[in-house]
Amino acid sequence: MDQLFNRKYIVQGLFIVIALILLGKLFYIQIISDAAFVSAESNVLRKIYKYPARGAILDRNMKVIVQNEPVYDLMVTPNEVKPFDTLALAQALDITFEDVRKNLKKARGKSSYQATPFLKQISVQSYARLQETLYRFPGFRTQDRTIRHYPDSVGGQLFGYVKEVSPVDIEKSEGFYKPGDYKGKSGLEFSYEETLRGEKGVINTVYDAHNTPQGSYADGKYDVNAVSGERLISGIDMRIQKLGEELMMNKVGAIVAIEPASGEILSLISSPGYDPNLLVGRNQGNNYMEFIVGNPYRPSLVRPIMGYYPPGSSFKPVDALIGLQEGVIDPNTTFFCPHYYQAGNRKIKCEHFDGSISLRRGIARSCNTYFCYVFQKLITKNGMKNQRQTYQEWRDKVAKFGFGSKLDIDMPYERKGYFYTADHYDKIYGKRWGYTNVISQAIGQGEITATPLQMANAMAIIANRGYYLKPHLIKGIGDKNLVKKEYVVKNYVGVDARHFEPVIDGMQDAVNTSWGTAILSRIPDVVLCGKTGTVQNPHGKNHSVFIGFAPRDNPKIAIAVIVENAGYGSTYAAPIASYMIEKYLKGSVSGARAAQVEWMKNQNLLPVLKDKTKAVKLTKADSLLLKKADSTKRVKDSLRIKSATIKQTVTTKPKEFKSVIIDKPVIQK
Amino acid sequence: MQQQQGNRFFFNVDWITVLIYIALCAIGFVNIYASVPPEQTTVFGFSTLYGKQLIYIITGLILGLSILLFDGRLFNVFSPFIYGGTLLLLMAVLVIGNKVAGNQAWIAIGSFKLQPAEFAKFGTALLLARYVGAFNPKFRDVKSIMIAGLIVAAPLLLIMLQPDTGSALVFLAFMFPLYREGLSGYFLLIFLGMIVLFIADFLVPTYILIIIITTIAGLFIYNNRRKQKIIFSTVLVTVFAIGYLFLIKIAYEKVLAPHQRSRIELMLGLKTDNKGAGYNVIQSQIAIGSGQGTGRGFLQGTQTKYGYVPEQSTDFIFSTIGEEWGFMGCSVVIGLYMFLLLRLVNLAERQRSTFSRVYGYSVACILFFHVFINIGMTIGIIPVIGIPLPLISYGGSSLWSFTILLFIFLKLDSNRMGFI
Ligand SMILES: [Zn+2]
């Protein structure tokens, strides 16, 4: 009996063990893991987001150049949907019967009790129509949103575009962005995303197990009102931005205009451009494939900041300035130009037989010989043995003008250009190399490349007589018009102000004297100083380049214009620059020149697409986009269009086309 | 005179147990009140769940106190009749019972619903206690095991026919009083082994289990190779174990209903199902887990308030406790149960009569099975078996049957000095 009495402890022990097991599991799910807590919140909470309006963008004359338009997303909560007249809904939304069924099925796949988009970005007109009948479709509700509108229909690359965030964006933002949010993907929309986007509002509503709303959560303690994005004031002058884009119609190239005193960019044009409104709304994807990816002249390459061009003759003023500062020449130094320059077995041709030529005239006539001598003197000033070091010193001085590095413009994807260091040449030539190996850089050819932005900035430096402010597109952020600190700092280039006058004399002559290279681009009553360039292009016809600033005293605008494959700088680039400057300074292009503007607009200088393989070669961004969507028929179509386009353009120059907006070859059957 | 009589009736009653009983009932009422959707709590009425529960508690208390007025010996004397009566009710429910959720468990008398399975527990406990008390078998022989087994198996099988697997399972609790009275511990081990093999059979391929079992058996036989008797019984056990493995598979496919199968698979983590059979368990665990340390507070549980846990006032009442009172509240409730169970065992041990002791053990173990299975189910360590949490879950039949079960023992205990 006593033995059996002990069994009491076994029974009681079992009770205690089981109780501890229960408490252990409870301890885990209640104290250690918070998974249940999170699930409980998501059970009862539904968030309804209020999307803020993005900030507007104004130009320098306070004209609105980017604004918002209301649109509506039709949301559906699948398990609240009751049988409805599908045809009526399709008609109200102007979509097909099939679309309704397809979209509903898609929404069901995402969530049955959360509201998911049924049809995005319904226009105000369709919304008005829908509003009257919406009560007939339980489970559907509309969600206010805004989309971008660009009143002037120009500046595609400048403004960039806004798009719904991708899973990658969401991941990168560490959860800041939620599916359904929009985000600036390029251009100003991208760089000022944080200012423009505003703050999303949210209303937390508690729902019971039957999905019936039970009022606000915690008396609205966690609700947030939407805050609109802040406005931006840009340095852009929409008048010349628009004029520039029209002038560049049917041409490939870039224009950058800067206000020298402030570094504010007055105009930034990439051609071919496109209407930014194409990348807004429901057809964004299709239009992107058709007009951006589908255009063989690659509008996705933002040429003012990504295009690499040898600076050519426009580089000569920089040579002269460093020569003067280093004392290897003075304003009266002359060299003899027998139609060429020769160093060892290297011969560089000059356009003219200039004879004995001075600095001022050398710049005005763009004498290659003169600047090769300047370069030779600079590199050999410490004797033949120290050329490597003097080259590097020269390179560093040129780099101060902004070549070979990014200027940190407030736009994404800026590139820095090629400008080799002495180390780099060591790799090519070994230790034994001298000025003769790199002489082509004297005239801005050869290994050196620069972006149009860097060229325009070099002009701003000359206009300012020795310094620049970082070129930037936005000069005022928000209602307080904040300016970024780095945009008010003067960056000196190490050349004394007095050395600029002789160089500017030469640039003035280039435009305003009979022996200059750009005399056809004179502007009445304005002293335009400039420099043409005819840049040799290994891939085809020479690029036409003009850089300059105006007026000579107290300059208001510095500019760089590049027209690809257009030949002489004086024929296209210089006139285009002069029209821009005249419009900016005087408000309009006057007299006979007004007709020239129209003539220029009508010039089709689109290069012939010679090589099929080269033409289909896409930029990295393009091909990435293609890859992403390559399963859709749309892409196949656009590829088909493209290859058709290319076949067509192999033999003939693309036809000029009537559309005012898009520079894209027309397909001929 | 009145006073004296009162003293005679309530003399020696273990009031601590009564207090715990009242505390658990009160906890039940509070949490049933919280489990009712908010719009129904504005008016206090006896038509609401908590209103009804209050009636059940009051009548239950009256019932319990009136049991104390009986002469304890009557329960011993009448145990065969009570047992027989409950068996008859169990048979009746199969014929005239109302189907609720596929189970034929209820007899409706007017608006009053009776669940005979609840009352079969104390009927069985009484008869088993009487058998052991009268014959004092030590369960060394097959005959006494058979008789005791029969007493338990008869109601168990009838309840299985309803079918109400959960309530039937509770009858396995009677193994413990029998063990206390001398049944070999091997029966418990075999029982435990069967459960382990049952679970293992789902998680591990059968042939691997067979290899493991035969290897262990082989080693065991090798170690005891001189003892023929051990070799013989080991072989026997091994054969049975392997046969059992196959039996499980067959029974699982042929006998269990699909919803029972999926409950087992869910519990073992073999499949997940957020909407179907797994919904209750997932929602219950979410509610309990979201209570965290100290709970969201009375009437503040969102999962409870907005009805995310189905059957919350009955089988899943523990999820309300977990959400609104947190780990603290859960510990208090489990602590109260443990205190009650350990006390009942201690009380049972102080009885002079075997009848009272066996009955006391039966009460403790039945309560233990209910608590373990119910709470285990709400936190997902046991498959969904629909049995109530004693004294806390909503429902008259369950509350009253536990009251009767408990108060009969309290009466027997108060009479422990006398001879029954
Ligand atoms: Zn010359």
Write a brief caption for the model.
The complex is a heterodimer of chains A (669) and B (420). Chain A is of the alpha+beta class and 669 residues long. Helix content of chain B is 70%, strand content 3%.
Could you list some keywords that capture this structure?
heterodimer; A: alpha+beta; Penicillin-binding protein 2a (Domain 2); Beta-lactamase; 4 domains; six-stranded mixed β-sheet; five-stranded antiparallel β-sheet; 22 strands; B: mainly alpha; 2 domains; three-stranded antiparallel β-sheet; disordered N terminus; binds zinc ion; cell membrane (chain A); cell shape (chain A); protease (chain A); cell inner membrane (chain A); membrane (chain A)
Walk me through the structure.
The complex is a heterodimer of chains A (669) and B (420). Chain A has 25 helices and 22 strands. In chain A, strands 2, 3, 4, 5, 10 and 18 form a six-stranded mixed sheet that branches. Mean pLDDT of chain A is 84; it is low at 612-669. In chain A, helix 11 packs antiparallel against helix 21. The relative contact order of chain A is 0.11. The longest helix of chain A is centred in the N-terminal third of the chain and has 26 residues, at 7-32. Chain A has four domains: 2-33; 45-234, Penicillin-binding protein 2a (Domain 2); 304-601, 3-Layer(aba) Sandwich (Beta-lactamase); 609-659, no CATH class. Chain A is α+β, with helices and mostly antiparallel strands. With 420 residues, chain B is mostly helical. Helices cover 70% and strands 3% of the residues of chain B. Chain B is built from 17 helices and three strands. A three-stranded antiparallel sheet of chain B has the order 1-2-3, covered by helices on one side. In chain B, strand 1 and strand 2 form a beta hairpin. In chain B, helix 2 packs antiparallel against helix 15 (317-349) and helix 15 (317-349) packs antiparallel against helix 16 (354-378). The longest helix of chain B has 33 residues, at 317-349. Chain B is globular and about 75 Å long. Mean pLDDT of chain B is 85; it is low at 1-6. The chains are: A alpha+beta (669), B mainly alpha (420). Chains A and B meet through helix 2 and helix 3 of A and helix 8, helix 13, helix 14, helix 15 and helix 16 of B. Zinc ion binds next to helix 16 of chain A. Zinc ion binds at residues 337, 350, 352, 354, 367-369 of chain A.
